[in-house]
Amino acid sequence: MPTLIDTPAVTPAASAAPVGLALAGLEPTGGRPLRAAVIGTGKISEEHLKFLSTDPRAELVGVCDLSPSLAKYAASKFKAAAAYTDAATMFRQARPDVVHVLTPPHTHVGIVTDALSAGAHVVCEKPIAPHRQQFLDLWRLAQAKGLRLVEDHNYRFNEPVLAIEKLARDGKLGEVREVEVRMVLGGIRKAGRYADTAMPHPSHNLPAGVLHEFISHLCYLALRFLPPTVEPGTPDFRVAAGWSKHGAEPLFKWDDLDALVIAGPVHARIRFTTHAGPDTFGVTVRGTDGWAETDLFQPYLRVVVPRKGGQQLSPLVNQWVSGWGMMASAVRGFRNKVMQHTPYEGLGTFLGRTYEALRTGAEPPVTYADMDRASRLIDALLLDANRV
After folding, report:
1. Thinking of the domain 5-18+29-154, which architecture would CATH place it in?
2. What average pLDDT score do residues 286-307 get?
3. Distance (Å, rounded) from C-alpha 257 to C-alpha 317?
4. How many Cβ atoms sit within 10 Å of the Cβ of residue 84?
5. What is the mean pLDDT of residues 336-353?
6. Residue 153 and residue 216: Cα distance in Å, rounded?
7. pLDDT tens digits, residue range 246-268?
8. DSSP state, residue 387
9. Which of 223-237, 258-272, 322-336 bottoms out in mean pLDDT, i.e. has the lowest?
10. Could you give the maximum distance between any two Cα atoms of the chain, in Å?
């Protein structure tokens, strides 16, 4: 068993990043739609633009991209008021209330700073910043401006994850003791944007290389089921992280991560690999009474808990319920492929809750504590002292 390094909990006072949500400049909008703008027209932008072009709480006033053709195409397809190639011009002319930062991660800090400085709330794709200290600097700026800064934790809002959270919250699983979040992406070393040696993707320069784009998802999902602290003043979690590079592709720093995170009585395993198949995004939560699992790439929900009929009949009932559930999930999965529905189904829920919070002055669905803790865990995974 490797030595586990304590990662101290950081209080809001110690981080100088207050969690208080009564922001001086944040007031309800009185029911009017929020003027929204998007920077970046990559793949994820389509999911944001679908929401912004159809939800009555938003008015899409601008789309910005360095490519004029991509900006014009996205603006036309999603009926934005205008297309831009310069963010500063868009801020000045479109005057957005909310800016969605959907560019590659290495650009986030600069663009988020500019958007906040222009007086807009920011919804940013993960990770907001490569390091926690940069996130804290952005948070302080948002607080000083009376604005919201919200990181996209979209998979938290996929239906199977919400269902597992409810099972845990309602005590159906007993007391949570084990969590596993596992992602398998077998093809990214050999094909696609991350494997292009002629035009290397900028994410290769992130602290964890390309894996940095994915570990945010793994961390924030695992943290949903870990206790925040054992007791006041004690370390938040302990970490042992095994980073490996098994392939020969020169662009990749690492292509495999196997990490153990311990918070009080709960053990979490965070697993990412490019050396298995098929592609998987699994979440499993085990408690003292039962367990539940899903795969967000091929959505289903399997639940094993005590059933009516007692200990003798529970296995039979669980198998019967799981069998019907798996068959129904297979049909839904086939339909989703035909209809081109993606694993981003939780993004609409996340954005809907975020816009409702911005309109009413309420707490966003992804809080300072959620973002800070995920950022701290990522930093801990990368810490030399925690590597095995």
Report:
1. 3-Layer(aba) Sandwich (3.40)
2. 90
3. 36
4. 23
5. 78
6. 8
7. 999 999 999 999 999 999 999 99
8. B
9. 322-336
10. 69
- DSSP for 158-192, please give it: SHHHHHHHHHHHTTTT-SEEEEEEEEE-TTTTTSS
Single pTM value for the model? 0.87
Q: Which two tokens stand for residue 154?
A: 């979209």
Is 49 within 8 Å of 169 (Cβ atoms)? no
Q: Provide CB contacts within 8 A for 316, sequence distance 6+.
A: 309
Mean pLDDT of all residues in 81-108 = 97
Domain spans of the chain, in order of start:
5-18+29-154, 156-346
Contact predicate 152/103, CB 8 Å: no
Taking all residues of the chain, what is their mean pLDDT, rounded to a whole number? 87
Per residue in 173-184, pLDDT (tens digit) is 999 999 999 999
229 is written with which tokens? 């602290």
Return the CATH number of 156-346, one of 3.30.70.2190, 3.90.1150.10, 3.30.360.10, 1.25.40.10: 3.30.360.10
Query: What distance lies between CA 36 and its chain's CA centroid?
Result: 21
**What is the average pLDDT across 288-301?**
93
Q: Could you please report the per-residue DSSP string of 204-218? A: GGSTTGGGHHHHHHH
Reported as type and span, the H/E element at residue 263 is strand 256-263
The whole-angstrom distance between residue 354's C-alpha and the CA centroid of its chain comes to 14
Confidence of residue 236 (pLDDT cuts 50, 70, 90): confident
Q: How many CB atoms lie within 10 A of CB 152?
A: 29
What are the φ/ψ torsions at residue 211 (nearest 5 degrees)? -60, -25
